[in-house]
Amino acid sequence: MTMYELILKKKRGGALTSEEINWMVREYTNGCIPDYQMSAMLMAVCFQKMNTEETTALTLAMADSGDRMDLSSIKGIKVDKHSTGGVGDKTSLVLAPLVASLGIPVAKMSGRGLGHTGGTIDKLESISGFRTSLSEEEFLKNVADIHIAIAGQTKNLAPADKKLYALRDVTGTVDNLSLIASSIMSKKLASGADAIVLDVKAGDGAFMKTPGEAKALARMMIQIGEKAGKAMTAVISDMNQPLGNAVGNALELEEVIATLKGHGPEDLTELVFTLGACMLLSAKAADSMEDAEKKLQDALFSGKAYGKFLEFVKAQGGNTDQVEDPCLLPQASLRMEVYADREGFVTGIHTEEIGRICLLLGGGRAVKEDPIDPAVGIVLHRKIGDFVKKGDSIATICANDKTKCQAAGDRLKAAYEYGDRSLEERKIVYEVIH
C-alpha cells in the first residue's frame, strides 16, 4: 500500500481499514510519509469525514504509536481533565490544584495553543523557570508526592498525535469531529488516568459551534474511552464569549491566581466547580454533585487550592515570586483602551475573532515554528448582557508592537455587537453527561 493510494481512497469517500490506518500512522510517525502527503490526507478527512470504526482505529493507533504512562504505582483513582479548546480557557490551571488539594491524584498531559485557542502549556511557560517537559520518573513522583503534575506530551507519549497536532494547526484542518476526538483521546488513553472528565465547548469561540455538535463529539469520545476501560464524564459548556476576562498567556495566569485566591470571574469559577465535582465523583471522593461542590468551595475559599498551586509551581521549577506578585509576570510595553462607539447592551462577542486578535498580537502561532509572546493579549471590561455608554472602555489591548496594537483595536471594536435590550442570562454549563 502507498500513501498516494490512501489519499485517493479517502478523497473519493472510501472508508480506511484498521490495517491501513495503523500503517499510515506508523509510517508517518517514523518519518516515512512527508508532511505534504499527510496534509492532503487530513484535508480529505475534513471533506469526506471518518466513520466510528475509522475514528476508533485512528485513536488507538495514535495511542499505541509510543509509550503508555503507567500510573499503577500511585495510590487512588487517578483523574484527568481535558478541554476541547476555547478563548480565555484557563480552567485547568485552577481546577487541577483545586482537586489535588483534596488529595486526589491529578495526572495531566496538556497541549499548546491550536489555531485561535490557547494552550495550558503556553500559559504555564509564562512563569520563568517553569518546566513543562518532565521525565516519566519526575511526573510520577510529583503526582505521588503532591497529587499534581501538568506536563506537555513527552517525546514517546502518542508521538503520532504530537506530529499531527502541529500539522493540523497550520493547515486549516483543526475543526473535524474525528480528528479532534482521536487527538484528545489518544493522549488521554496514553496518559494512563483511570477517570477522564471532558470539557466540550460549544459556541462561536469553539470548534463545535452548537451544543448539539458538542454533544456528538462528547458521546464519540465517551464511547472511545469506555471501550478502553476508562470512567468517562463530559460537560458541555458555553464558548459564545471568552471565559473570564483575560485572553493571552500571562494575562490569563494573573486571572488564574486571582481565582485561586477566591475572587475570580463568576463564569470561570462556576465552570471550575462543575468540572471539579465531576472529577470528585469519578474518584469516588464525594456522594453527590452538591457534596462535591461544597468540598471544592471549602478548598478554594480556605486558601488550600492556592497553596497547592504554589507547591505545584515550585515542584516544576517555576518562580513562585511571580505567583505571589503577578506584576512580576511578563508585561506588555503598550496598553491601549478600546471604547464603545454606541450606547446599548452587549448582545454578542465574536469570540473566535477575539482569539485571532490575540494571535495577531503574537499570543499564538500562525505557523508551528512561531515563538509566542507571553505578555500580549486582551482584557475584556464588558461582556454579554452588560450595558455600556458611548465612550466607555470595553477592553484593554496589551501589545509590544504599535502597528499590531492599532490593528487589534480596530478589529476588537468590530467584534462587539449591541442591542437595545439585554439578553437572558447565559448558562455556562449546558449539560453534564455522566
Automatic annotation (TrEMBL):
Catalytic class of the enzyme: transferase
Reactions catalysed according to its record: uridine + phosphate = alpha-D-ribose 1-phosphate + uracil; 2'-deoxyuridine + phosphate = 2-deoxy-alpha-D-ribose 1-phosphate + uracil; thymidine + phosphate = 2-deoxy-alpha-D-ribose 1-phosphate + thymine
Family annotation (InterPro entries): Glycosyl_Trfase_fam3 (IPR000312), Glycosyl_Trfase_fam3_N_dom (IPR017459), Glycosyl_Trfase_fam3_N_dom_sf (IPR036320), Nuc_phospho_transferase (IPR035902), PYNP-like_C_sf (IPR036566), PYNP_C (IPR013102), Pyrmidine_PPas_bac/euk (IPR018090), Pyrmidine_PPase_CS (IPR017872)
EC number, UniProt record: 2.4.2.2
Residue ranges annotated for the Pyrimidine nucleoside phosphorylase C-terminal domain, each copy included: 345-419
Domain of life: Bacteria
Keywords: Glycosyltransferase, Transferase
Similarity comment: Belongs to the thymidine/pyrimidine-nucleoside phosphorylase family.
Subunit structure: Homodimer.
Its job: Catalyzes phosphorolysis of the pyrimidine nucleosides uridine, thymidine and 2'-deoxyuridine with the formation of the corresponding pyrimidine base and ribose-1-phosphate.
Protein name (Swiss-Prot/TrEMBL): Pyrimidine-nucleoside phosphorylase
Protein species of origin: Claveliimonas bilis
Gene name of the encoded protein: pdp
